[in-house]
Amino acid sequence: MNIIVVGTGYVGLVTGACLATKGNHVICVDKDQTKLDKLAQGILPIYEPGLDKVVHDAVTTKHLSFTNNVKSALTMLAPSSADQRTLIFIAVGTPQGEDGSADLKYVLAVAREIGQELQQPAIIINKSTVPVGTADLVKGEIAWQLFQRKIFLDFDVVSNPEFLKEGVALDDFFNPDRIVVGTDNPIAKEQMSALYLPFVAKPEQLMIVGIKEAELIKYAANAMLATRISFMNEVANVCDRFGIDVEQVRSGVGADSRIGPAFLKSGCGYGGSCFPKDVQALVRIAQSVGVDPLVLNAVEARNKKQKQYLFQNITARFGANLHGRQFAVWGLAFKPDTDDMREASSIDLIRALTTAGAKVIAHDPVAEEMATSIFSDLIQDGKLQLEHDPMTTLANADALVLVTEWKEYQTADFAKVKASLKSAVVFDGRNHLPMNDLKKLNFEYIGVGRR
Ligand code: UDX
Question: What would be the CATH architecture of the domain defined by 219-305?
Fold first, then answer.
């Protein structure tokens, strides 16, 4: 099939490259020429395991190419056959607006460009995470442009939310739990099914639903996952007070087949580009139709508090005034296998520690560049130092604080860690380190709801 993907961010690039592996012809469009130049040299704008090879192979076989505008993408594509429409994915950002709702300016700008340039029948697919009713807005914008051009073209707008987790996005694309397509148009249904059936093991994993239903599924799924995490974080806080081990509680709760074990890990709060933004956007969606989002507000409030968890434990142990103290921080990305630091718990922690007078020496296997720009002020003031090796963060530190659960931290030589630290204290913000081994080495181990 002929496919255009507008937006080569995280979602657009993964979508375009993965669709190209199944023999489709994909053109990715992005306004950022520097990004395109780098992509042409095989340099990816994001860190995602395995994606560089998929992009490279698809470019080599000429199934994937790049351009900086929709018009040239449309002219580069071979004409679609009479029974096949050109598929145009919109995968641009939906940043958070001032009131917490998703800002649609980029999505609607793409819709306008499509309406101004389209010459053939097409199916426009909303991949961006957008509020309920956005497909109608996109359709209206394209129709208005076509009307002004005085041409009639057969087109429709479909909702197809993404469920890609950073760090494992390729596996999520090639082995999805489900693919959701929102449409009531039989032609779109047929073509979207043909596009996606090669990606599912069983046909029922391809779920064709209503358009607004698809739009809401995305928000509801992410908000549900965020709810589970916030819920377990609250349970972990109760565990702390009773001296109960939350890991045992988690196993017992997750073993119930009605609940299941995934997304029940307590820690120092969730981050990333989706959960915080999507929970807030769903709050606004609910409020816009007069529903008081009591549960969602609580999920968000718990997460904000949870991001202070490590700092509160550190000040409980070392006192509120941290002048003269130094802390080693392991992990800056919002989760492992990504360099993404959006809404990362490390930001709240490092800002709080340095404001209280402490110095921080931090390490992350891939987020160092991102951290250098986010914390440029602290680095300049000498309050934060970034190291390439986790072991060199430890000398003279009053404690080690783990924020992101990178695998390599688990297998560190903890006897050496102990020898380097000023005091053998570990705050494990993800319950990730081998607690029993650390206790045998006489570390003071403070996890999240651990006994
Ligand atoms: C999420 C959704 O999972 C994905 O389907 C969606 O399309 C995009 O948003 P992502 O943000 O990449 O994916 O990360 P995810 O693995 O879901 O983790 C989000 C946050 O939750 C991370 O900060 C992670 O550390 C935290 N988390 C996750 C927990 O605190 N506990 C858990 O049990 C799981």
Answer: Orthogonal Bundle (1.10)
Residue 28 annotated as catalytic:
no
Class of domain 2-209: alpha beta
HEC letters along the chain: CEEEEECCCHHHHHHHHHHHCCCCEEEEECCCHHHHHHHHCCCCCCCCCCHHHHHHHHHHCCCEEEECCHHHHHHHCCCCCCCCCEEEEECCCCCECCCCCECCHHHHHHHHHHHHHCCCCEEEEECCCCCCCHHHHHHHHHHHHHHHHCCCCCEEEEECCCCCCCCCHHHHHHCCCCEEEECCCHHHHHHHHHHHHHHCCCHHHEEEECHHHHHHHHHHHHHHHHHHHHHHHHHHHHHHHHCCCHHHHHHHHHCCCCCCCCCCCCCCCCCCCCHHHHHHHHHHHHHHCCCCCHHHHHHHHHHHHHCCHHHHHHHHHHCCCCCCCEEEEECCCCCCCCCCCCCCHHHHHHHHHHHCCCEEEEECCCCHHHHHHHCHHHHHCCCEEEECCHHHHCCCCCEEEECCCCHHHHCCCHHHHHHHCCCCEEEECCCCCCHHHHHHCCCEEECCCCC
For domain 307-446, the CATH class is alpha beta
Å from CA of 271 to ligand 1 middle: 7
pLDDT in tens, 1-60: 999 999 999 999 999 999 999 999 999 999 999 999 888 888 898 889 999 999 999 999
Residue 272 marked in a binding site:
no
For residue 228, report the distance from its CA to the centre of ligand 1, in Å: 11
Reported ipTM: the value is: 0.95
- Whether 2-209 shares its CATH topology with 307-446 is answered yes
* 91-147 confidence digits (pLDDT tens): 999 988 888 888 999 999 999 999 999 999 999 999 988 999 999 999 999 999 999
The full set of domain ranges for the chain reads 2-209, 219-305, 307-446
Ligand 1: residues within 6 Å at CB? 162-166, 222, 225, 229, 263-265, 267, 270-272, 274-275, 334-335
